[in-house]
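User: I'm curious whether this sequence folds into something compact or stays loose and floppy. Could you predict its structure so I can see for myself?
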Amino acid sequence: MSIEDDSEGYRLLPPGEYNGRIVWLERGRFNGGRKIPPCNKAVITIRVDTPDGPMELDTQLLLHKSLEWKLSSFFRAVGRKKPGERVVMSWDGLIGLPIRVHIGNRKFMKDGEEHICNDIDRFIDYDPQNFPSDPAWLQEAMQAEEEPFDEEYSDKAGSGRKGNDRTVFGIPGEESGNDGLLEAVPCRQTV
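Assistant: Here's the prediction. I'll summarize afterward.
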């Protein structure tokens, strides 16, 4: 086997709003930090459209009561929640949905050196006018029925990610226990 493709290197995007699509969703565990105790998390990969071509960015949603505002913002951005509305969050059918995000540049220290990276710093509320290039597809995606549960792992949308250890999940709308954690439960979609 031979290889040829060289990486173009890391591209730092100018801060601003970008359209994209959700291409991957997996669950994980946050080990805890100074402000948030250990809790479940969602790792979401969004492929954003940039002037230099598409780019994938990951963002993490910690499933903790103190960050409910961020979860709410995410579900408003994909059109699954209206401002002020109480909903039970469903992670089903999110893969492929359009989303608009604001990307900023975040500074961080690594090995004593300052670095800058792209960071999805907020989600923009869903507005169909933000996605004029494919309104037919958009309407189908927003009105699509949930896919039936499939116990077999399937590699959808050509993501190239393999292995059945990565599953998406659902979250009930209520907190569990007295610790303020939102509990993750299995959902009805595999990726």
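Summary: Residues 16-186 form one domain. Strands lie at 16-30, 39-48, 55-62, 98-110, 113-124, 169-170, 175-176, 181-182, 185-186.
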